[in-house]
C-alpha cells in the first residue's frame, strides 16, 4: 500500500466535494468514498496483510483521510441545505396583496334558531331547564297526568310502544311529572324542551316526530292572570311588541281550566285574511291551570298550591316566524333551504 495512493484518493474526494452543487450530488460523493464498498474501505481491509511495522502508519493515514473527507462532507452539506432552502423560499414567495378566499360558512337550521331563542326568553323570566327520557313509562306519560288507561285522550296521542309499559313519549309533559316528584311539594318554575313522537302521517303540517317546549309553574296563589302575563311577555319577545294574545276555552286532561292561545296574525295585523281564515288570530299553543288531580298525584296539596302549564311546538313557531310551507323541510337538511337562514343565525 503506497502512501501516495491514499493521499491522491483524499485529494480527489475533497475536490469532488467542493464541486458538488446539490445535496444529491454530495450524497453520491459520500457513497463513493465512505461506503462499505468504497476504495477507502478496500484499503482498510488490506492493512491486516501488511508487515507489522507498516500497519500502524497505514492505519493512522487511512483514518486521517476518512476523517478529513467526513468533515468536508458535513460542512458542505450544511452549506448546500441552506442554499436549497433559500432557493425554495424565493420560489414560493406569497403575494400578500392578493385578495383572500372567503370560507363557505354553514347556516343554522331554523329549528335550533327558534329553540335557542325561546330558551333564552324563558331563562330571562327565571325559568329553569329540565330534561327527561324520550322512552317513557305509561305511568309518567299518561297516568300521572290525569290520563288513565281508559281515557279517550289516549286516542289523540297514539304513539310507538316498546312494550305494554314503555313507549316513545307523546309530549314533554312527563318531565313535568318527574320534576314535581323530585321537588316533593316545593315551588317549581321550569321549561322542558325536547323531542316527542306520535303516530301521525307525514305531510306538510304533521310529522311522526316533533319537538315541544313545555313550561310549568307551581307555587301558592298562582292564577290564570299569571299564565296570561307570562305568555304575553313571551309572545312580544318572540314576535314583536305589536303582537297580542287571545285565550280561548279548550280542554286538556291535565289542566283545568284549559285554554288555546292565539296571537294576532302577522299577515294582516289582526284584520282578517286567508292565512288566519278571517279571524285575525293564529293558534300557537295550549295551556291551562294544572289540574288538582295532577297536583295531588305528584305530591302537592291542591288546597295550598296551584300552578299553570303550557306547551308550544318548536316547529310550529318556526313555520309562523319564517313562513315555511312544509314542516318536512326542517328535517331534510337541504342546503338550499338552510342557506336562507344565514342572516338569522
Question: Could you name the key traits of this structure?
Answer:
single chain; 345 residues; alpha+beta; 2 domains; seven-stranded mixed β-sheet; two-stranded antiparallel sheet; 9 strands
Present the secondary structure layout:
Elements: H1 3-19, H2 23-34, H3 39-45, H4 52-91, H5 110-124, E1 128-129, E2 135-137, H6 138-141, E3 166-168, H7 173-183, E4 188-197, E5 209-219, H8 224-239, E6 245-252, E7 255-264, E8 281-290, H9 292-297, E9 306-313, H10 314-322, H11 335-338
Parallel strand pairs: 1-4
Antiparallel strand pairs: 2-3, 4-5, 5-9, 6-7, 7-8, 8-9
Number of domains: 2
Write down the overall geometry: elongated
Fourth CATH level, the homologous superfamily of the largest domain: Bira Bifunctional Protein, Domain 2
Largest sheet geometry: 7 strands, mixed
Question: Count the helices. How many?
Answer: 11
How much is the radius of gyration in Å? 41 Å
- Helix content estimate: 40-55%
Strand order of the largest sheet: 1-4-5-9-8-7-6
Give a count of the beta strands, DSSP E runs of length 2 or more: 9
* End-to-end Cα distance: 86 Å
CATH class of the largest domain: Alpha Beta
CATH fold-level topology of the largest domain:
BirA Bifunctional Protein, domain 2
CATH arch. level architecture of the largest domain: 2-Layer Sandwich
* Spans of at least 5 consecutive residues with low confidence: none
* Percentage beta strand: 15-25%
What string, H for helix and E for strand, traces the elements in order?
HHHHHEEHEHEEHEEEHEHH
Amino acid at each position: 500500500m503506497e502512501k501516495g495512493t491514499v493521499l491522491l484518493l483524499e485529494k480527489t474526494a475533497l475536490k469532488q466535494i467542493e464541486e458538488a452543487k446539490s445535496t444529491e450530488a454530495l450524497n453520491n460523493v459520500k457513497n463513493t468514498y465512505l461506503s462499505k464498498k468504497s476504495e477507502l474501505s478496500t484499503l482498510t481491509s488490506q492493512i491486516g496483510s501488511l508487515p507489522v511495522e507498516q500497519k500502524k502508519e497505514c492505519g493512522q493515514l487511512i483514518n486521517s483521510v476518512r476523517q478529513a473527507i467526513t468533515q468536508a462532507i458535513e460542512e458542505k452539506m450544511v452549506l448546500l441545505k441552506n442554499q436549497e432552502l433559500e432557493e425554495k423560499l424565493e420560489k414560493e414567495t406569497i403575494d400578500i396583496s392578493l385578495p383572500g378566499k372567503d370560507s363557505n360558512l354553514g347556516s343554522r337550521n331554523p329549528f335550533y334558531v327558534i329553540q335557542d331563542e325561546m330558551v333564552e326568553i324563558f331563562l330571562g323570566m327565571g325559568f329553569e331547564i329540565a330534561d327527561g327520557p324520550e322512552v317513557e313509562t305509561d305511568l309518567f306519560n299518561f297516568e300521572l297526568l290525569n290520563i288513565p288507561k281508559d281515557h279517550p285522550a289516549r286516542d289523540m296521542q297514539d304513539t310507538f310502544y316498546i312494550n305494554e309499559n314503555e313507549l316513545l313519549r307523546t309530549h314533554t309533559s312527563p318531565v313535568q311529572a318527574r320534576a314535581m316528584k323530585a321537588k316533593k311539594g316545593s315551588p317549581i318554575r321550569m321549561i322542558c324542551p325536547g323531542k316527542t313522537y306520535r303516530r301521525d302521517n307525514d305531510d306538510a303540517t304533521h310529522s311522526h316526530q316533533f319537538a315541544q317546549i313545555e313550561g310549568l309553574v307551581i307555587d301558592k296563589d298562582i292564577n290564570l292572570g299569571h299564565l296570561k302575563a307570562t305568555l304575553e311577555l313571551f309572545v312580544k319577545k318572540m314576535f314583536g311588541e305589536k303582537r297580542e294574545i287571545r285565550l280561548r276555552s279548550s280542554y286538556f286532561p291535565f289542566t283545568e281550566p284549559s285554554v288555546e292561545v292565539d296571537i294576532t296574525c302577522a299577515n294582516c295585523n289582526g284584520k282578517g285574511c286567508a292565512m288566519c281564515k278571517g279571524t285575525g288570530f293564529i293558534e300557537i299553543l295550549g295551556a291551562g291551570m294544572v289540574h288538582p288531580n295532577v297536583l295531588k298525584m305528584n305530591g302537592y296539596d291542591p288546597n295550598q298550591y296551584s300552578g299553570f302549564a303550557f306547551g308550544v311546538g318548536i316547529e310550529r313557531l318556526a313555520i309562523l316566524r319564517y313562513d315555511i310551507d312544509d314542516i318536512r323541510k326542517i328535517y331534510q337538511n337541504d342546503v338550499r333551504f338552510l342557506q336562507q337562514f344565514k342572516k338569522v343565525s
